[in-house]
Amino acid sequence: MDLHQRIGAFAKLGQFLSQFTNDNINKKEDIPFNDVFFEGFKHQIQLAKEHNGWFTKENVFFALTSWSNLLTQKALEDWLSKYTINQIQPKTVAVVMAGNIPLVGFHDFLSVLITGHHALVKLSSNDKHLLPYLAKYLEHVEPGFKGRITFTEDKFETFDAVIATGSNNTARYFEYYFKGKPSIIRKNRNSVALLTGTETETELKALSNDIFRYYGLGCRSVSKLFVPKDYNFDAFFKAMYHWHPIIEQAKYANNYDYNKAVYLMSEFDMLENGFLMIKQDASYASPIATVFYEYYDSLSELKNKLTEDHEHIQCIVAKNVLPNEIKFGNTQTPELHQYADNVDVVAFLLTI
Hints:
Aldehyde Dehydrogenase, Chain A, domain 2, CoA_reduct_LuxC, NADP, Aldehyde Dehydrogenase, Chain A, domain 1, 5-stranded parallel sheet, globular, 39% helix, acyl-CoA dehydrogenase activity, 6-stranded mixed sheet
């Protein structure tokens, strides 16, 4: 199986996923093995929703649509064009996946297989239904993948390298357990938005998607705002309002009520609009239904701070301020070349 065949298989997977969107589930013609897999994947989506209350229809389909848009022949070829991927000696790469958002570990899974390695995957118990089914689809459209994908709940025994994603606490365990192996170990990160007060209503409304998509559970979810002194939050709250139906989701509402009670009993100053609280706080990681904010005096000092704190930050949303900034509304739709923690996974896999 060469690179062209691997790209072709993932492109066919992208076509398969294009049938599942928030607008509707639409069975298309000319999708390979559709009669075998279409109804079964609908069932797996339902199981994922029932197993994890955060995996609503909207969030699952948003993830599926995002991957369908990325898994095209052209996008895959463009992504890989900067690498020299020849016939390599396949290694077994252990992948420990998080489960905070649907298919959160798919990019690692894709990177391992597209470079010609074998994937040994340990799924999070929170997201265990979707990826194994999609792996079976890959094996059908490209039989060369058979024997190259293994899912396990057991302790890793034989592997050559590892990519592991977890919390700061589990990262310490990973670093000890996987010492001596080539590795990428990811810790907690959060995303921030840098506001200047000149943002348009359209930009702030786009920012609301960065905040509320996946209920703020992703590392690319904006959990912290940096605002200038005397910033007026009226325009911000107005732009957030179209997300107000989120409070109808029971798990989100429970978190909102709990955190609001904690803030009130602790006599913390905060602003809220019935479904979102903002609180002045120096931390980057905010609880569900809360966004922290911090004032800044000068952009130059803030830029220095963000540089110093880069290990805590996944994305920075801003407009014409920083060279590595993300546009408003784009944090949850990264391109294939936008790696978690800015660590080039494909480059790593080509050196093991």
